[in-house]
Write a structure and sequence with these properties.
Elements (H helix, E strand, L loop, with lengths): L6 E12 L5 E6 L9 E2 L2 H20 L3 E10 L17 E2 L2 E2 H16 L6 E4 L11
Parallel strand pairs: 1-4, 4-7
Antiparallel strand pairs: 1-2, 2-3, 5-6
Helix pairs in contact: 1-2
C-alpha cells in the first residue's frame, strides 16, 4: 500500500478437470496451497468463499482502493493444460454447480456487500479464457 497504487486485484480461481480432450467434466476448488486436493463445488463452499472474499475486499475499500476482480479456472489435474483452450459452458452444471453459480455469482455478491463506498469496480468474468467463448 505504500507504493501509491489505486486498485487491488483479486484473482478468483476455480479448478477444472477434463475428459482428456479439453472438455470440462468437473469444476472444483482447493482449500489452500498446502492442501491441493480437488474438491467439487457445492453451495456451502461457494458462499463460504464469498464471505472470505467480502472481508478482504472491505479492507481494500476501507483503505480507499478500487477493487478489480479477475475470475478464471486453472487446471485441477496437474497436467498443465491451458485455460484458454478448454471447452465448457459457463451456465452448465458440472457436478452441483455451474461456473456462474460457483464463481461469478459469489464474487458479485462479495463485491456488492464490500463496496460500501460505491467505488468503481472492474469485473472480469473470464480472465485469460477468451478462446473458450468460441467453442
Amino acid at each position: 500500500m505504500a507504493i501509491g497504487g489505486r486498485a487491488i486485484n483479486f484473482f478468483v480461481t476455480g479448478y477444472y478437470q477434463t475428459d482428456g480432450k479439453s472438455r470440462v467434466t468437473r469444476l472444483g476448488y482447493v482449500e489452500s496451497a498446502f492442501d491441493r486436493g480437488f474438491k467439487d463445488y457445492n453451495w456451502f463452499a461457494a458462499y463460504r468463499f464469498a464471505g472470505g472474499l467480502e472481508r478482504c475486499m472491505k479492507v481494500a475499500v476501507a483503505n480507499n482502493f478500487y477493487v478489480a476482480t479477475h475470475i478464471h479456472l486453472d487446471d485441477g489435474e496437474g497436467r498443465g493444460t491451458w485455460r484458454n483452450s478448454i471447452i465448457f459452458d459457463p451456465s452448465k452444471k458440472y457436478g452441483a454447480l455451474s461456473y456462474w453459480e460457483a464463481l461469478v455469482k459469489p464474487t458479485a455478491l462479495a463485491i456488492r456487500k464490500a463496496n460500501f463506498k460505491k467505488r468503481t469496480v472492474l469485473f472480469s468474468m473470464q480472465a485469460e479464457m477468451g478462446a473458450t467463448l468460441f467453442y
